[in-house]
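On to my pick:
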Amino acid sequence: MMGYANLAQTDTGLHMRQRSRAFIIADASSPTNRVVFINADIAMGDTGVRRTIVSQLSKQFPGVYTNENIAFVGTHQHAGVGGYLENLLPQVTSLGYVKQTADAIVAGTVRAVQRAHANLAPGKLSVGNTTILDANINRSPTAYLANPASERARYEYDQDKEMTVLRFDDASGNARGLLSFFAVHGTSLYENNTLVSTDNKGMAAFLYEASVEPNAFPGNTSFVAGFVQSNVGDTSPNTLGAFCESPGKPYNGLACEADHSTCGGTVQDCHGRGPGFRISDFESNRIIGDKQFRGAQAVMSGSRIPATLSPVEPRALDFIQGDNSTSQNPFWELVKGAITPFPSAEQKACQAPKPILLNTGYSHTPYEWAPSTVNIQILRVGNFVMLIVPGELTTMAGRRIREALRAKLISSGVLGSDAYVVVAGPANTYGHYVTTREEYGIQRYEGASTLFGQREHQPFTSPLGLSPIFFKSSAANLGWGTDTLDAYIDKYSSLVPYLADNTSGKPPSDPASPDQTSKAISLQTGVVFDATPIGKKFGAVLVDVKTSPAYRAGDKVSAQFVGANPRVSTVLVKTHLRDLPGDLEQPSFGWHVLDSRSTCVRPVEGGAL
């Protein structure tokens, strides 16, 4: 699975299917002037997957869908399938590259865009926002406090609590879809979960689509709800905070140590708790999804303006946040020299105060460990501007880049004071985290995971009707010289002149990253053999639902069928099992030597007998 970097977290079943939702905004007077926003239920966008999506769409629709106008954004959930990213480092815990997974993501996404293209019709857009107070917290408040007091004083919270909703209406004024931008990590489901899911963003989308078309099966609704990730870096859905789960220890049940998120000096027992902690992580997931659903619903039913207008989850290795003084594990001292080059003095200065564990930027064997070039992109629709960001911006980093780009749009004369700027990501490429310089110095997880170091960058709407539409994207090698956030701001700012109404030409771009998938290594074995038990057919019931005693709300109904390993065939659109999961849908699979058995568990909803 992808997200927690835990080799033991291997799929055993399905909670909710991962989906891609595509939104196309086009200028009726200039059909090739359009943008495609893809919101995919995956951990993050990837260069290799996006490259294939762009290739297939550009062949099917020459001159219409291109590398410039397609944004591939992940919801950043941590309960989905892994192995689809083309760089080596994130492949380690999925035992390498899994082509079958990447192919399924591409196929599903291309189909979503094809459907959106076929359903293009005249319409209008509007934007609104609301405040959601209890759906996220800052998981690294001590790092946030390192930001200047004068800057922090401008904001009421150490998290962005505002949800922005872009509404899509048809020509008759009927709602056809929405894009909701709100920052909260997709970690409601913990790393002990082994059911493929979409976490709280996918739950919010399901709840909204089901509320509009309650009798339609998931994936077959005409209304499409996209719950988009934003400056997610230091957010957490575990709103109760982080506590020590250390049975028998004196600190069991106490809050984790604040600066380093430790319990008794180690990180393994420090776990975030969601609002449904006393029930289950699935209940926490439902609650956080529901809060986003209801926030978007409030905006959709309220007033809008036309577009003019918990700590990081511990890993098996005991790295302590905010502590660079302790001696490093000798295993890693040995490994990093054996498999990656020793860092130069220049690199050490670039990354300081972070010690370099693995010198991934200079590791090219057997192929690239991490991206050296990232894709940056801005989509403008009227006065609504979307910064498509290849990483996880922290709260304050997101605020700074939004503010800087809005100021640049206005000072350049591209837009007026009604400019509305949002952040979407991690998208297109996964460049890991982006913090402020002050947060980087604290070296909690977000700072330590700022891949390019503190001295890496020099980087980054008319009525909100369907026109004008502008899109610019560029490949950027961030280089050294300024801090990472400033580099992104610089690179994104360089794209602003190309968003003007009467602009022409394309922005300069570094060469695109070379394909890595042709060199990829995979240790994932295929399905060697799958058959039915003697005398049985696929789909036959092995253990039927018990008919007594009577079921009551909260009870779980289960049945076991003759199934097959789902890797035998990745099923798109079709399904082997249909259900309307009001709360949870939890099929699980047991693979035996000669046959496979699937068990479906369904909770009885409230009010039922």
Q: What stands out?
A: Residues 541-603 form one domain. Confidence is low (pLDDT under 50) at residues 307-324, 327-338, 456-468, 581-587. Residues 238 and 273 are 5 Å apart (CA to CA).
